[in-house]
Amino acid sequence: MRSSDRLLEILETLGSVEAMTLTQLAHRVDLTAPTVLRLLRALEERAWVTRLPSGAYAVGPQLLAAAGKALQRDPLIAAAQIALEKLRAELDETVSLTVAADTQRVCLIELESSQQLRFVHGVGTVGPLAAGASGKVLLAFSEPKLLDKVCDGPLEIYTEATPGADDLRRQCADARKQGWAISSGERSRGACAIAVPLISPLTRAVYALTVFAPEARATADSRREWLTALQRTRDDIVHQLIPDQTGVSTP
C-alpha cells in the first residue's frame, strides 16, 4: 500500500470516531504502531491530526476547516441551514441534518431547542447507523449493501431498546415503506427521535432530517406535528434545489 493510501485510511478512520489511541488506530488500519506513529506525526505537523491531552488522536483543525469550506459551498447544506432554523423556531425542539459515512452517521447541522430539558449531540459528532431514527432512515434509503454491511458487523448495544440485526432490517423496511422512522431510547434512554429522508435532487445523496427530544414531550400529537413539519421542511429544501427551465435553481 502506498503512503498516500495509508494517510487517507488513517484520516478516514479518525473521521469516523471522536478519538482513538495509537494502539486502537494501528489495529484498525492493520499497520504496526511505529508505522502509524510516523504517519500521524506527518499529519500532525500540518494540523490534519491533533493529539489530545489524553494521548489519543483526533482529526485536526486543518481537516475541520477544509470540511467547513466544502460544506459552505454545498447548496443543499445552505438551503438546509435556513430551513432548519425555521423548523427549530416552529417546534422549539432540537433538529439536525445527518449523512452516512461508512457504517457511521455524521451530524452536519444541529440547532438546539431553547428548552431547559433537551437532547443534543453536536455538529461533527459521529454516531451509529444501527441505533436511532436518523440511522434507520439513512440505511433504508441508501444502497442495500450498506444495510448488509452494518448488520453483518458487530452491533453495539447502547440500551435495551437498541435493535439487533433482524429487528434493524425489519425497521428499515418499515421506514422505506412509510417514508419515515422513529426511535425511542435506542441510543440514549429518555430520548425520542423522528426522521425523514432528504435525497438531494442534484447528487442523489441521502441525508436524514431529524427532530429529537425528551420522551416526556413526545406525545402522539407531538409526533404527528413533528413528522408533518419535517416532511414540509424536506419538500421546501428539495424545491429550492430543483433547477427551473432556465437551468437556474429556484429562489
- What order do the strands of the largest sheet run in, or round the barrel if closed? 5-4-3-8-7-6
Global Rg? 19 Å
**Poorly predicted sequence stretches spanning 5 or more consecutive residues:** 244-251
CATH fold descriptor of the largest domain? Beta-Lactamase
Overall, the morphology is globular
What is the CATH class of the largest domain?
A: Alpha Beta
The description of the largest β-sheet is:
6 strands, antiparallel
Number of domains: 2
Structure notes:
By secondary structure, the protein is of the alpha+beta class. It has two domains: 3-65, Arc Repressor Mutant, subunit A; 74-241, 2-Layer Sandwich (Beta-Lactamase). 47% of the residues lie in helices and 19% in strands. The chain contains nine helices and eight strands. The strands form two sheets. The protein has a six-stranded antiparallel sheet, with helices on both faces. It has a two-stranded antiparallel sheet with strand order 1-2. It is globular, with a radius of gyration of 19 Å.
Helix and strand arrangement:
Elements: H1 3-15, H2 22-29, H3 33-45, E1 49-51, E2 57-59, H4 61-72, H5 75-91, E3 94-101, E4 104-111, E5 126-128, H6 133-141, H7 144-152, H8 165-178, E6 181-184, E7 191-199, E8 206-214, H9 220-241
List keywords for this structure.
6-stranded antiparallel sheet; two-stranded antiparallel ribbon; 2 domains; alpha+beta; 9 helices; Arc Repressor Mutant, subunit A; 251 residues; Beta-Lactamase; disordered C terminus
